[in-house]
Amino acid sequence: MPEADIKRPLDEIWSSFNRVGISDTLTIIEHVAALLTEGQAAPSEDIQPRLPPKRPGLNMDEIRNLLKEAADAAGDKATLFDRYVIFRLQERLRDRSGHYPTPRHIVQFMRNLVQIDENQRLADFACGTGGFLVTHEKGEKQARSVTGIDNAPEWARLAWANVMLHGDTTANIIVGDPLRICSAQGELHNQAFDRILMNPPFGGPIDVELGKALIGPEIAGDSATVLTTLALRMLAEDGQAAILVPSGTLFVKSAGEQGLRERLIGTRDQQGSLAGMYHLEAVISLPGDALQPYSSLQAHMLLVNKKNEHQHSQQIATWFFQPAYDGYPSGRKRDLTTPPTMPNDLTYVEKVLLTRGSHSEDEQTFATVGMALIGVKKIKSGETFLGVIIEALNGAAFRVAYYPKKEQASAFFLASAIDPGNSQRRVYVSVVLGQDLSTDTDDDDKKLLARLYPGVKEKDIPLPTILLAEDAYGEALAIAPGDQVLGVAIAAQGIIDREYGLQPKDYVKTPGAERIIEPPAVLLGRVHKTQYTFLAQIDGLLGRLELKPITGQQLPSPLRDEVKPLPGLSREQERIWDLICTISEQHQALNGLFTLEDVQLQETDSQEKREATRLTFDLFEQMGVIVPVTIVDPNKHESLGTIFYKRVTERDIWEETEPDHEGEKPK
After folding, report:
1. What is the CATH number of the domain that holds 645?
2. 527-584: per-residue pLDDT in tens?
3. Over 569-601, what HEC string results?
C-alpha cells in the first residue's frame, strides 16, 4: 500500500481539528480512537474514549469518511490506529509522567520471545496505548485473557480502543496505581499471569509506603525497579516476563536494585547450591536509539522465567546481548510507521534465544574419545545465514579466542574445550565466518594454527583476543557475519562473582578489546624500537623544515590568547570550545591531543547533542582553530584508526619566505 494513501487523509483529519482550535496531538488521537470504536461501549466511563466536541466548522461526516479511506489503505482499522494514528505522537509527553508509545518493532520482538498462546493470561502493568496487549503479525496467537493497567486515564482509554479494534472485547483495562491494584485490597490480589510484557516509566514516581507493604522494606524509589519486582511477584509458575529497564537497574548498588538482581539470579546456600525462584534467561542492551524519537536513554530488556518447584536448584546460564542495529536509521527522524529493514540484529538475537536447547541439521558437534565437548550451530532466518553459536557441551571448560587476518589467512575464532573427566583430553575447533561457515578441528592447537596460518612461523602468528576464558563461566558465544560478537552465555556463578552486575558490556567482548599480556622483555623491546623510530622521524623532519625559534616562548603556547574561533558563535558552540580547551590542557602528557569522543563523552544528554558536537568540530576545523593529526604506527607503518585533533597555536602558522622582490615582504 502506498504510504501516501494513509498519510494524506490523516493529515486532512489533523488539519480539520487544528482549524477549530483542537491542536493537542494526544487529544486528537483520542478523538480518532472514539470515532474508530464508535458504537462500542467500554465497561466503565474511565476507559471510554471521548468523541470530539461539537464545534462550528468541524465536519464529522467528512472526518469519518477520511478515516474509512485511511483504514482501507492500511488494511483495517486496527492497523491504522496501532501503526499510524498512535505514532502521530512525535515526542514523549513529559507533563504526563513521561508517557510515550513503545515502538512496535520492539513490542513485536518482546512478544516473539515469550511465545504467547491462547491458553495464557497476559498482563502489562504500565500498558500505555496497549501495544503489548494486541497481536501485530498475521497468524500470531492472542492470549486467553488480557489485563492492562495504567495510572493515566487518557492512556488507558487508548489501550481499550486498541484492544477493541483488534477484536478483544473481554480485555480488562484498569485505571489506577498497579501497586494498589495488585495489593491485598486490590482487584488483582489473587491473580497470577503466564506472560507479562512491560515498558515501565523510567524514574517515574511511586507510592513508597505501598511498595514496602506489597514487595518488602528494601523497595527502591525508582518506578522501573519497583514495577519489575511487582511483575516477578505476579508471574505464574513456568511463566515468562519481558521487561524494559534503564541502565541503573543493572548495576546500581541500592537495596532495591541489588535485591532485584539477586532475586533474578539466585543465591548460594551454605552447601554452595544455587537457590532461586527465577531464571534470568537474557539481558539485552537494545541499540541506543531503539526508543527514539521518544527517548535517547539506553534501554535493556530482561527476559525472565519463573521456575517450577522442580527447577529451583538448577544452574542455568544467562545470555547477554549487545545488538547494534534494530532495522531503523539512528536519530530522531526514524519513521516508526514503516516496518524495520536490514540490518536488524534483533532478528538474530530472537533466533538464538528461540532455538536454545534445540538441535538441528545445521549443528556440528566436536568430540574427544566419544564425548562431545563443543557445538557449532548455524543461525538462519529462512535461507538467510545470520551467524553461529559456539557452545560448550557436557560441562566442558570452555575458551574462545579471536585470531585476526594475516596475509592470505582469514580471521577466525578458535574454541577449545577440556573433558571434565580428564583434563588431558582437549578438542580445538576453528570457526571462519564468511558468506557461510567453515570449521576445522584437531586435538593439538599448534597443528590447527599451522593449517590456518599456512607459511607463517609460529612466532609470527598474531596474538589473539580472548573472548571467553576457561575460568569465566562462559558457556556459549553468538557471532554474526563480520565477526561481530553479539552475545555470550554466562553461568550463574560467573554473575555472582561479579557481584550480580548485569550489564552486557561487562560480558560481551569484541575482537581487539583484550590482548594477551606479553613478557616484560618483549614489551620493553617494543618500546625501545618505537622510540628509536620516532627519534629517526624527528631527525628527518628537522632536516627538511626551518622552524621559528622557540627559545624563551611559553610551552605550550597560550592558545586562548592566540588563535580563537571567529566571533558570532552560539552559546552552545562557545561551550564546546571551552570544553575543547579544558580537555586539551588536561592532555599535556599527550601534547594536548584530543579526540571527538573525548568531548562527546561529556555530552550524555542525547544523541542529538553528540551530533551537534560533531558538527561544531567540523566548523572549528573550517575556521582553522583545530586541525586533525594523523599518528602512524611505526611497526605497521599504518595510521591509527582514531582521529586526533590539536588546537592551533601561532607556532603552527608557518612563515614561508619567498625570494625578495621590490616592495614585497616575506610571508
Report:
1. 1.10.10
2. 666 666 566 656 555 554 444 444 444 444 444 344 677 777 787 888 888 888 888 8
3. CCHHHHHHHHHHHHHHHHCHHHCCCEEHHHHHC
